[in-house]
Amino acid sequence: MRVIKNYLYNAGYNILALILPLITGPYIGRVLKPEGVGINSYTNSLIQWFVLIAGIGISYYGNREIAYVREDKKKMTQTFWEIQILKVIMTVVAFFLFALFIQFYRKYYWYMILQSLNIVAAAIDISWLYMGIEDFKRTVVRNTMVKLASLAMILIFVRDAGDVGIYIVILALSLIGGNLTLWPHLRVLLVKVSFKELHPLRHFIPTVSLFVPQIATQIYLILNKNMLGIFAGATSAGFYNQSDALVKVILGLVTATGTVMLPHVSNAFAKGETKKVNELLYNSFDFVSCLAIAMMFGLAAVSKYLGTMFYGPGFGPVGLALMIESIVIVLIGWSNVVGTQYLLPTNKVRSFTISVVFGAVVNIVLNFPFIYFWGLYGAVWATVLSELAVTAYQLWVVRHSVDLKKMFENFLKYLVAGILMFIPIYYLELLWKPKDMNVQGIMYTGIEVVIGIIIYVIVLLILKPTILGKIKMIKK
């Protein structure tokens, strides 16, 4: 039950990090227009390289290391401060590199300065500590208040197409505020340690080993927007960002299991419970498959007019981009289970690194011709094929360590349920054509979603995948 509760909290946490642009999307799309949305998306994609340098792989590494030592308060305190000091050092390095960058890249100069607040937010993010001790409730509750405050500020202060800078500042300050709320509780979690006992540099090489896959993972998002901005204009980068924002909200539900299970599996691995580690993998993979396949077909079915309905006139290209990108919901869901929930906690970092670097290389190679010939849709297909490369490699790596047949035993049943759900929902989408965020448009989309869920559940009840038995056991 603890894992299930943590999953629900972390799903809320992941969605919360993305919920602000989702809620404000219809408003911002209509106020800032495609050009303003594109400027924010493009400049943010550039600043993310420096955010990555400041974070230096600590999100995964810190989570895992805290999970290893969480039963010893002194060791946990020492580990936390060592990692956090290293993070501060890397933040200074990131700001130095950013200062050099803006001396040479002057386009959108003022917006880039404002976006640099995101580097500060990264420096004070200690959510990895709470994830390592499996305390997800605190992050959700505290960040909810901050997100609601930022939502109010956007609705109050962002009034026309010239308020792009204000929008950037509000988003960055919401991240800083949310991260600051996690610090006061440290006095309860940690104990006093001598500064002389701290050796932050001992974590440098291990974090770098996880920094490489983190950079490679981000290439799919950042580089696509970078290249779209250069070759197709900031507006195309904005279309990609708006499509990706909706997909990532759904992925927040699917990949929430990764952050929850990483410390759980790490702790089991540290105790030598190999059988338990594998069993956790099978259960998690089955759960993610069930959820991800339903969400992939569901999003694809309602996507045709969703861009225009959600973001407003001028965002029509987002619809087809959403339909194509929905495929990554399943692919990222699977790679999250195998990579984050198995390879990382069992210390198979090299295999994890190779998989995401392989995906990044595929992405870079495909981006040039795909974006040149097909623009926005080329970038989306490059992303899909890159994620396919990552997932395929990870499954190939673990083929001798786990039972792949057991992992995929219910896949065909979920696939049949997803296809049978997609057909009538897509027909309704073409029939109703919901193109505006009015009562009728929201009602039509809501009806489609409800019908889709009902069809998927009914088909699963008929086909009887093994996950139904596990749900009954949880209820008992």
From TrEMBL:
InterPro entries reported for this sequence: Poly_Biosynth_Transport, Polysacc_synth
Organism this protein belongs to: Ligilactobacillus salivarius (strain UCC118)
Transmembrane stretches, start-end: 7-29, 41-62, 83-102, 108-128, 164-183, 204-223, 285-306, 318-339, 351-374, 380-399, 411-429, 441-463
Localization: Cell membrane
Main location (coarse class): membrane
Keywords: Cell membrane, Membrane, Transmembrane, Transmembrane helix
Origin superkingdom: Bacteria
CC terms in the record's Gene Ontology section: plasma membrane
PANTHER family: O-ANTIGEN TRANSPORTER-RELATED, PST FAMILY PREDICTED COLANIC ACID TRANSPORTER
Protein name listed in UniProt: Oligosaccharide translocase
Upper lineage: Bacteria, Bacillati, Bacillota, Bacilli, Lactobacillales
One matching Pfam family: Polysacc_synt
Keyword hit for Membrane: yes
Topology term for the membrane: Multi-pass membrane protein
